[in-house]
């Protein structure tokens, strides 16, 4: 009897699965299409990584180019300009991560504290509109603001903070803060959306209990809001850590010039310069592999740290 019951349960489970598959066939079809798309455009191109270990010539192709092992990687790390590029990329990546990450959380909390619904919606809409602007437009605005006759210099001169206009794009010390400011201005409103969603999911009774205990606005933020979005913060932090070396390309390429190229060039610009402009595809691919490998390592380390501390993690 027990065997018959088990068999009937298995048959029932299989019939339920078949029915579920039939009911969700449209989802499965679209899921299959997306999987095939990802395989074609994200995994098949990895075959091109072989060129990093070859003296690749387009006329010879991947299968007939000379195999040279790790020679291109040795060239990379013996090149002082590449070491400098790594420094620039890491510095701007960390600055962007800290600035945009912290500002998004702060802005979401402040926006949540606005009690007027109309004012809140207007503020939120205005804040995430810059996300939809291209970097061409953003860098144009920045250039006009920070030029010798721009509004920033006019304000500083009129307030007698400086005696004459500053050429912000001629001094290396200003470039990294300019890049961080541009990323904050462009992405803070957009990045805050997910934190606002997490805040709205917090049980309102927790705020009422905190108010009964005598907590003010800061107390509610400290003991209810921040713990309530802690898991979201950690997951997004883990995801963003892997993008530290994606410090950017457009803003550095558009705002950089010969006077500040020692601090403005990133790995992506290096790849463009050597891989495309100079025709050394193998060297450009090697630099790209290095960037990807470091990103994966950073994600694994951050995930392991979160795991050891009992926090949310990616896997």
Which key features would you list for this structure?
single chain; 315 residues; MetI-like fold; 16 helices; 2 strands; 72% helix
Could you walk me through the main structural features you see in this protein, from its secondary elements to its overall organization?
By secondary structure, the chain is an all-alpha fold. It has two domains: 1-69, no CATH class; 78-308, MetI-like fold (Orthogonal Bundle). Helices cover 72% and strands 1% of the residues. The protein is built from 16 helices and two strands. It has helices spanning 2-23, 25-43, 61-64, 71-77, 80-112, 117-128, 135-146, 151-158, 172-200, 204-212, 217-228, 230-241, 250-255, 261-264, 267-277, 281-308, and strands at 54-55, 66-67. It has a two-stranded antiparallel sheet with strand order 1-2. The longest helix is centred in the first third of the chain and has 33 residues, at 80-112. The chain is globular, with a radius of gyration of 26 Å. It starts with a helix and ends in a 7-residue tail after the last helix.
Please, what is the CATH homologous superfamily of the largest domain? MetI-like
What is the count of β-strands? 2
Taken as a percent bin, the fraction of beta residues is under 5%
Backbone CA Rg:
26 Å
Shape: globular
């Amino acid at each position: 009897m027990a065997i018959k019951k088990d068999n009937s349960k298995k048959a029932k489970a299989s019939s339920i699965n078949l029915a579920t598959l039939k009911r969700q066939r449209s989802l499965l079809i679209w899921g299959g299409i997306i999987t095939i798309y990802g395989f074609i455009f994200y995994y098949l191109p990895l075959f091109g990584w072989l060129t990093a270990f070859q003296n690749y010539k387009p006329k010879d192709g991947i299968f007939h180019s000379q195999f040279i092992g790790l020679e291109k990687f040795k060239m990379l790390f013996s090149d002082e300009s590449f070491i400098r590029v790594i420094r620039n990329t890491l510095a701007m990546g960390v600055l962007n991560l800290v600035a945009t990450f912290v500002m998004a959380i702060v802005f979401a909390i402040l926006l949540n504290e606005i009690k007027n619904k109309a004012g809140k919606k207007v503020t939120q809409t205005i804040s995430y509109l810059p996300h939809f602007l291209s970097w061409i437009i953003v860098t144009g605005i920045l250039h006009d603001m920070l030029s010798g006759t721009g509004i920033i210099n006019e304000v500083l001169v009129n307030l007698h903070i400086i005696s004459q206009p500053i050429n912000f794009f001629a001094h290396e010390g200003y470039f990294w803060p300019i890049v961080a400011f541009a990323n904050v201005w462009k992405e803070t409103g957009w990045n805050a959306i997910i934190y606002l969603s997490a805040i709205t999911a917090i049980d309102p009774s927790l705020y009422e209990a905190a108010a009964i205990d005598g907590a003010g606005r800061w107390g509610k933020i400290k003991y209810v809001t921040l713990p309530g979005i802690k898991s979201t913060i950690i997951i997004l932090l883990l995801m963003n850590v892997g993008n530290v070396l994606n410090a950017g390309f457009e803003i550095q390429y558009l705002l950089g010039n010969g006077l500040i190229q020692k601090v403005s060039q990133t790995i992506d610009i290096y790849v463009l310069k050597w891989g495309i402009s100079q025709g050394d595809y193998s060297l450009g691919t090697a630099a790209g592999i290095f960037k990807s490998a470091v990103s994966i390592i950073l994600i694994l380390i951050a995930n392991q740290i979160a795991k050891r501390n009992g926090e949310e993690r990616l896997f």
